[in-house]
Amino acid sequence: MTMTTASSVENDRTIFHVVSGIVCLWISYKILVFLRFLKPKSEHSLRSVAIVVLGDIGRSPRMMYHAESFAENGFMTYVIGYGGSKPIPALERLPKVELRYLSEPPALLSSLPFVILAPFKIIHQVTSILRELLIYTGEPPEYILVQNPPSIPTLAIVWLVGKIRGSKIIIDWHNLGYSILELKLPKTHPYVKIAKWFEATFGRIAYAHIFVTEAMRNYLVEEWNLVGEKIVLHDRPPKHFHRCSAQEIHDLFTRLQTPLSQYKSLQNFLPESTTPFSTPLTDRKPSSDSSTAPSPTYTLDPISTTAPTYENVQPPRLRPDRPALLVSSTSWTPDEDFGILLDALTQYEQRADELSRTNDDHKLPRILMAVTGKGPQRDQYMKRMNQLQADWRWVRCISIWLEAEDYPTFLGSADLGVSLHSSSSGRDLPMKVVDMFGCGLPVCALNFQCLPELVKDGKNGLVFNNSNELAQQFELLLESFPSSERLDALRTSLRRTTQRSEEISQNSQIEEWCSWDENWNRHLKPIILHGIRI
């Protein structure tokens, strides 16, 4: 299938989902008005919340953090969404959290043509969510928190359930659903107009609106005249995100040895290692052992079980011959142009090869570029990348999926982060950059409208506009790696700009950098604990 044909099919699917969602929602509403099993509005359960994620729960970090915060504040928390990825450990540990996984359509339907299958899938989706909110959640929850987008049909479903059960609706505005549709269809297309009307109509009135940026709040308040409390809750990393020690990096890459060995492109590229004594990034050799050898051999003897003291065991250290580890987290969607990164890596490969042929001290290291995440464009871009890097000497790019417990450690092990997020609306911010900052990782970020709310060029990261600028930033920051003065200076500056204040004044108009918990407790906790009359 050509890219043009694939794009056409995707457009057809998107359009069909919009129309089918509206039709099925109307049918569901007509059915529900006759149901009599529902409890009266006045009998909803205090200190309870249903969090609706129309997607993989494990791939929705902001909503998982919401769930953790609600549960830690005494709320019975029901998280409703699809399975697939493992959620953060807290959601499986906290006694007040229940994960309610929506069922997938029967496998038998998958053999049907899409035109026939799509209506069944939409009906199944709508009825599954309504079943969880109206039947399986016996007592009506005090709050229903819904992530937007997707807007259709979730905004209308929670609006309807709120009317029936008396639950207070909270909308977390990550982005604008209709703006994502504009990536596939012209702005004047009837279905874009329908999607915008749907989002504005069912999203306008809520108990509270949460926004990821000031720009998002200002735009929606002006354009849609939102009704309800309006809160800007910038993404912040969880408190356990941090810069990793050599021991933590060693432990992680010991665990990753098997998955990394499956990449043929990494053979003869990474330094030789022998787990558990060494990894491509760490080893247990004393620093003096490799100071005069450019390519040391890592074949260590096992640690003696009869060693008289623990001090005789050499702790891991970062290898001087390691490649620079770069990481980019992406959902592989059209609002993140992976082609920019691919072109920048191509330019870096050419530049590194050119410098390696001279006697100049200006040298560049090898790069291991790890792209985390799953999404529709992954196979297309990685196929192209594998074709290019077959002849490369200095760069390798792999796509890797990390579970929730390993992801922050991987970020805390990396040398540089890359953000390709451009925002379909221009009013949301990439959470991946927040996570990277929480792990002390400087970032090169693609420029767009409200990026300065998060990335301060030259202070906590660098901003680029195209692949040429990104390639130049790679060269600037990685020269003489691992002893790169510019990269070290950026790390130091990042530490200063994200250093948490010991005491955050409740009356301060300046938002300090803090953990997710501190930020949530400061901005959202007063509203959900004490309530606000609208």
TrEMBL record:
Residues 302-312 have a biased composition (Polar residues). This is Chitobiosyldiphosphodolichol beta-mannosyltransferase. It is found in: Endoplasmic reticulum membrane. Participates in the formation of the lipid-linked precursor oligosaccharide for N-glycosylation. Involved in assembling the dolichol-pyrophosphate-GlcNAc(2)-Man(5) intermediate on the cytoplasmic surface of the ER. GO terms for molecular function: chitobiosyldiphosphodolichol beta-mannosyltransferase activity. Pathway: Protein modification; protein glycosylation. Residues 288-299 have a biased composition (Low complexity). Its main location: endoplasmic reticulum. Its EC number is 2.4.1.142. It comes from the Eukaryota. Keywords: Endoplasmic reticulum, Glycosyltransferase, Membrane, Transferase, Transmembrane, Transmembrane helix. Pfam families: Glyco_trans_1_4. It is an enzyme of class 2 (transferase). The chain crosses the membrane at residues 15-38. GO terms for cellular component: endoplasmic reticulum membrane. Residues 274-321 are annotated as: Disordered. It comes from Lentinula raphanica. InterPro entries: ALG1-like. It is a single-pass membrane protein. The keyword Membrane applies. The keyword Endoplasmic reticulum applies.
